[in-house]
## 1
Amino acid sequence: MGIIKKQAIQSTLFNYMGVAVGFLNSTILMPNLISKENIGLLGFLNSTSVIFSTIFALGIPLITVKIFPKFRDQSSSSHNGFFSFSLIMTIIGGVLGVVAFFFLEDVLIEDKNEAKYFAPFVAGFTVLFLFRLIFKNFDTFIRMLYNSVLGAITENFLAKAVLTIALVAYWLLEGYDFIYLFILYILGLSIPGIVAVGYVIYKSSFNLDFSKFKRASAGLGKEIKMLGLYGLLGSMGTIIVLEVDRVMISNMLGLAENGIYTTVFFFGIFVSIPAKSVKRVAIVVVSDAWKANDLSTIKEVYAKSCLNQFLFAVYLFLGVWLNIDFVFELIPNEYSAGKYVILFIGIGQLFDMLTGVNTEIISTSKYFRYNTFFIAGLILLVIILNYIFIPLYGITGAAIASALAVILVNVLRYVFLLIKLDYQPFDSNIIKIILLGLACFGLLALVPVFENLYLNILIRGSLLTLLYWVPAFALKISVDINSSLLKLFKKFN
């Protein structure tokens, strides 16, 4: 458990640095410097490249998580040639993905979507897709070497920092041609993949001797193929829930509406930031625990992830929602149409945080194929819900569809773990968090509104922190958080 806490804290630090930079980009710079249409274009590029890189990873992340412990060799950086297998599959996935995009371009980009008429879009997509695919497969390998921090630095902080530099230059140079910003946007999001390649070369893991893998994988061929299939279908569901709404909005409503949705989506997803760090490390620990049949560790990781993620998520959700009207004063008024997008996306993410690392436990267990079955249903559900709610409620309808899908899949995962493994992660502390959150919301709703925008945010943020964390500490809701705070206090003393 120590490695989860240590690397999760380090990763969380960079995640929140990335959040700060992302807030600057999404809330201050982009809405005030470039048009809704261009924001929508960048958002559409981001979503399509994420979806394609997930599909054409060909299930390698799950194969790596499940199979790599059998290939782990501390005496050799090549780990019995496992990386050569990952590299070859990444090349195959990259070729298939590019070919598929060119064949499906007219289906993916409809006439209402202005990206269809932006000539550099296809080239930009191709570059970004390939580097994201590289990062997805290589980063999983790197995390299995117990280094989850590198990916957190590059993906969550460095990539966003490059965009900040590009936007500041755009402002100082009084709006240079958008094509240059488009190129720098792609470069920034490609950095994690570039760094991942450099890291495996530095660690001498970039070994192309596939013969070692063939010898070490004797008898595992059928299992690897099945893992690839289930990993592909399972990861598709998770990504589609988060990304397909922006693709459908772009095609059904246009890039301007997607620009609004993309801008405000950041605030809804904000509550899930703590989970990124925990899940990056937990999946490695859980995978090794399954191999050692260490069920007590898995139960402990599950219970603590539910509790700690939810404790932070409620605090962050309240922080966003109590200040949302003031935040909208920082950006053009037209973006206020996305207010309730934040509410519904936030509710969906709250529920996701409440159910902890359920996906990681299922996907690394012998029941991993079951994860695929209800994920396939989820894909169909989220697309149907978007087709129903987007025409009725516009971008808010997309958020409602996303929230319903996230809640449903997590209910299914919770019930599955309860029935199959008798894992019950919740205790009375969850009720305490809910009551504490409601009490804080009720009290802070009584705080008067002042004329100064920043004073309103500062007062509500400070009061929320005091009213939330002092009782949480006193009630000992989380042993881990209390322990970390006490260590921090001792260091200051």
## 2
Amino acid sequence: HLIADIEHGNIKVPQFQRDFVWEISKSAKLIDSVVKGYPIGEFILWKTNEQLRSIRNIGRLNFPEKAGENIEYVLDR
């Protein structure tokens, strides 16, 4: 569900979040664990219907904007 929510624009990374610091190999292992359904710990999400001025995309992927809907912003992992 996590990947689908990201692809549909329901979960976003806010611009005020710190820069990405993980190495590619560590990121790949996290995604692999998510896809396989392994426990990965917790994400802290902020759910709001307020649209933030700027959103950080993930890599080169641009995800759809969802105005007026509840969006969950990743605050920490």
## 3
Amino acid sequence: MIDSGATAFVLICTAMVMLMTPAVGLFYGGLVRRKNFISMIALAFIAFALVSIQWVVCGYSLAFGTDICGLIGGLDHIFLQGVGMEGDGIPDLLFMVFQMVFAGLALAIVTSGVAERIKISSFIVFGLLWTTLVYDPLAHWAWGGGWATQLGAIDFAGGTVVHISSGFSALALALIIGRRLGFGGHGMEPNNIPMVLLGGALLWFGWFGFNAGSALAADGLAVNAFVATNIAAATGALAWFALAWVRGRPGSVGIISGAIAGLVAITPAAGFVAPIAAIPIGACAGIVCYAALVFRIRRGLDESLDAWAIHGMGGMFGALATGIFAVAAIGGVNGLLYGNPGLLLIQAVDVTIAVGYSFGMTCLIAKVIDAVMGLRVTEEEEYVGLDIAQHGESARV
């Protein structure tokens, strides 16, 4: 029973989400120093290529295979066994690739924590291990019939699976790999703000496929998610803009960062809340993520592309906000505001475990890799810049 309209819709959404991975590269590339511009974009492409292979070999099966004790999927779909052109509404093969682009994006976001200082070889090993040991279990818990699903936790498009996992993993990586040389003592301003804005614009565009596509049909739920997504992005941008203006001059990077904060927060909620709820969700996300960024700066944490502040904290807030604003008329379940405080408690349990697991497992993976092969480039390579040291290329024209 394949619906051609739904299939066409999800195909388009898949392509839109795929575009978000190089968009992250452009966004991050513009934020680093010019000598590492190519490196950041290359890491995004490497992330997507790695996950594309890992997902079809074993990742999809681990995430969506037969449930094993609520923790992980079985190996019944390794090498895409049993994943074909049949399915419920859309082909199983299409659902597989739609989920694959989510996983690729998550790994690209994690590169924030190692900007300008990780070895390519170490990142490749880390990427394979992280996707297998962190992302795949979280995807199974939320969407593959794992314990979070059984508990009643809800995550429409990846608040815990994509954003909490990548944000807190980026923080863990940053702590393990250490600060960049000269951090806090030398200027490390963004090298290309227009590129940051272009990357942010592509992310905003791709997010419509990210959230609306998660309805898996061209229906009213997809429209609801689409509208809520845009409202949250706009209110997040305005909230961050206002806070930055109060503290000084409102920079353009802050505006697009606020929009992404709103987009992150609405991701788990888009198919469960009314569009008007996206206003408080987006506005509060802008405030929460801005406060997290200020905290990071004051603590001297070199997770300077702010995956933790925006994706990690925004994902946390969004998952909890879903437990507050969810309404049965949209997604079939009520939250706190509609007489069901239990959902907020369930969401809090889900968030707590997702944060702890993502952060802890990433620390373990990073420490093992650092002990075996080293995570970080040499001081000389870091001084020269990874564009030249690792790619033999330069962004200078």
## 4
Amino acid sequence: MTEQPSILRYRLLLVLAAVLWSLSGLFVKSPLLAVIPLDSRGPLLACWRAIFAGLFFVPFVRPSALRWRRGLVPMVVAFTLMNVLFVSSMTRTTSAAAIFLQYTATAWVALLSWLFLHDRLRRSTCVSLVGALAGITWIVATEQTAGRELGNVLALGSGFSLGCTLVMLRVLRDEDSTWLTALNHLIAGAVLLPWALLSGVSLSPEQWGLIALLGVVQMGLPYILFTRAVRHVPITEAVLISMLEPILNPIWVWLAWGEEIGRNIEVGGMLILGGLAMKYGIDAFADRRSRPEVRT
């Protein structure tokens, strides 16, 4: 009788993590940050968001987890690219397009794992690949708004970079995940720091406060909640719950700042998310069928 309330609590933690992750567009699209020159806005926000998030993670890293491996280099490079590409894409296209195209990362993970780690390409994975390809094709082919093409390309690049990051995290799965996450954020911020300091852009105290919240509340805190909850909830269910993020992200931006969600983005996003939902649904069903039946 006590197990179900406990599982419910961890599911609620996953929901809260997804909601906090979904706030990226709300912060990046805010009028307070929109006054930063466009050419500087993406890299500047990516730099300080990563640094604030990395500093938030530091107290959670166990000293015994600190060690260096060669595999950390490609992981950090991929994460750094993902960080700057995603935030930059958010400033140059709609929040919906940026988050949906980044969610193609799951398809990239499947493809890269098959090519380089020799994983078996499961039927459910092929479903997600088809959904991702259909969604990408639809968004790119139907995007008619001038100026958003670059943002969509950057968003797609962020999805690929995130896929590479996740593959490297799997290669480094024996390492402490909090240490890897802190390292990713701190180095991603440090790489951009010289540019940020020399950019000539000065930030107001209000802008600094908002960027700090972007790093801690939108990036740092949800990761801690997710890693705590995922130990008690099946990973397929956890991933499905986390898909609230791309659904809520454009809704917050629309409610707060009035950014419209184009019908083409809605259709493309549903193709991408639908493929992912079918994949994890098929996997969950297959895992349930493979478990031995317990008779009482």
